[in-house]
Design brief:
alpha/beta, globular, disordered C terminus, about 180 residues, five-stranded parallel sheet, about 55% helix, disordered N terminus, 6 helices
Amino acid sequence: MDKQEGQSSVAEESKKEAEQSGDKKQFVIGMSQCNLGEPWRVAMNDQIKMAAEKHPEFKVIYADAAQDNSKQIADIQNFIQQKVDLIITSPNEATPLTNVVKEAYEAGIPVILLDRKIDGDTYTQFIGADNVDMGKVAGEYVANTLLKRRWKKYVKSRDSKVHPEELTETMVLERELRPIRR
């Protein structure tokens, strides 16, 4: 069973348990986007809406901060006052949103961060890319592709007998040991 199937079966089990126990509790999710000016964020909200429609026990409240930290802080404070069951947010900026996310987390509301983290670790889950790893991969690409081409052209123009691969490896090693100076 893959991860998605596992999540789906857990949701189905929760739904059946609620129906069997006669508990008609509605789970309220506060979704705070940093902005809806990017089409993929609109698509994300649409996908959350479609998924929630399959589970009548879920109610999603959406908030768009419109790239305004103060508005997003107020939106999340509103979710805390409403005592939502879960907050999902993509913080507009890490530092300004840290305290309100911490406030929600310490109030016992699970907080899922999407795409962007906050300062510290007072949240339940982060879903997003590993930016440090992406930086390493990008650096390796530059070193192994773009810089090799440059070195190969340099070596050809100098009629050197040294293999371009050796020069590239040496250059990469030197860059790791000595920071680039501007």
